[in-house]
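Data availability (excerpt). The following record was deposited with the supplementary files.
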Amino acid sequence: MGKPNGPCWWCLKALKWIPVIFIMTIVFWSYYAYVVELCYYTIKSYVQKAFYLFFFHILFLLFLWSYWQTVFTELGRVPEKFKIPPVEMEKLQQAESEEAQRQILEQFAQDLPITNRTIKGAIRFCEKCQLIKPDRAHHCSVCGTCVLKMDHHCPWVNNCVGFHNYKCFMLFLAYALLYCMFIAGTSLEFFIRVWKGELDGMERFHLLFLFFVALMFAVSLNSLFFYHCYLILHNRSTLEAFRPPMFRTGKDKDGFSLGKYNNFQEVFGDNSRLWFFPVFTSFGDGITFPERLCDEDTHTLLGEPQRWGDEAELDSPPHSGACSGTTLMK
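Predicted structure:
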């Protein structure tokens, strides 16, 4: 990859922006094609023009705002208390066996709010960042850091999707889908007229491509958006959907699920007036997560919807059985 701030490093960093530049090129061309070629030159009715332009610009601005926030939101850093001190790191490197390393990590992490484990049941440790991984955090090789509640790295936004920008990413998908559907739906009539040969001139090429591009993106975004809706309602990340998180009691794909409404609120917050705007309203700090409450006799979820644990429960031991105990969030 080259040294940081070296020529190769800067070249690679610049190349990562190509997908973002491509997306923005398509978006601004679609703006020209729709506003100028369709609404200004092709549509004759002033009422129809005003109606189309009003709703188009609302979706356009919300889409750009969400995309901007997804791209440029900082990922957030893992707190210093999770980092291994130099003295402990030296002991870890000099340990003669895997079991010795495991004991060193266990001792250091005994006061940290973590419940996730490796497949072997050990403490999750990042060798590159030299820290204990918080629950649901993973190291991104592209970003070169551990990302809180990492979902995936998206080259189309040149950023990781994680705790701090997941809501913005979801709104970006939603508004992009609505934007494409609106363009495809309102330009269908004129696409048919171009296809029949009723419209001539340069605008016909823009209208043909506008409809096809909008339809193509709408189809591709549709499956991605509804897949992430499913993940939100089950409180899973993309990584957790492919590999369920490991707890002290074993794997549990629903280990962080609190019920569909609470799962939704964990990402979008409890202020419904802000649900549709790409501003951070998610619950928590990305380090600790609420506990899925279980009945010790039946191992079934108690109550609908699930409640958030209070401070008095912070020191209670995890429940046994299929449900895994995670650190409670105030």
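Summary of structural features: Residues 294-330 have pLDDT under 50 and may be disordered.
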